[in-house]
Amino acid sequence: MDKIEPVQFPQELSVGEVARRCGISVSAIRFYEAKGLIASWRSHGNQRRYPREVLRRVSIVKVAQRIGIPLASIKAALDALPKGRTPTAQDWRKLSARWQADLDGRIGRLTRLRDLMTGCIGCGCLSMKDCPLRNPCDELSGRGPGPQLIEPGRA
């Protein structure tokens, strides 16, 4: 019988390989690096090289972005992980738990917005003193004349 050799994966990846494997553009990889979300080093030929672990970090960034987490929050969460360690499923549970309250708040605001929107369409609310979407409880009257936009429930 022939001996089957285990598949060896490269320990470092080029920027193009990372982009292809993650399904995003090379410019997005460079952007994430510029924002401090991922890190690379330079080869002797001055080409960017990434550790294999970057694939999981980029995946976490993409999932977090898809659910609306700002890059600054993603960076802060990733910075809390030990350097050089591949994020684990347990890391993801901790990261996602941090964002739960923010997501719940946004879902609540969007639900209220959806529920109030039906009565507002076409009402000409820019001329109304009390609009539950644009000016709840006439909160903007103290800020002076002219249009002012606030999010419901926020000053």
Explain this structure to me?
There is one protein chain. The chain has 155 residues and is mainly alpha-helical. The protein folds into two domains: 12-117, Multidrug-efflux Transporter Regulator, Chain: A, Domain 2 (Orthogonal Bundle); 124-155, no CATH class. The protein has five helices and three strands. The protein has helices spanning 15-22, 26-34, 54-66, 71-79, 89-117, and strands at 12-14, 41-42, 48-51. The chain has a three-stranded antiparallel sheet. Strand 2 and strand 3 (48-51) form a beta hairpin. Helix 1 (15-22) packs across helix 2. The protein is elongated, with a radius of gyration of 23 Å. Mean pLDDT is 80; it is low at 150-155.
Outline:
It contains five helices and three strands, in the order E-H-H-E-E-H-H-H.
Computed structural class? mainly alpha
| Rg on CA atoms, Å | 23 Å
| Contiguous runs where pLDDT drops below 50 for at least 5 residues | 150-155
Averaging pLDDT over every residue, what do you get?
Answer: 80
CATH class identity of the largest domain: Mainly Alpha
Question: What is the level-2 CATH architecture name of the largest domain?
Answer: Orthogonal Bundle
Shape: elongated
Total number of distinct structural domains: 2
Query: Biggest sheet, strands in spatial order?
Result: 1-3-2
What percent of the residues sit in helical stretches (DSSP H or I)?
A: 40-55%
CATH topology call of the largest domain: Multidrug-efflux Transporter Regulator, Chain: A, Domain 2
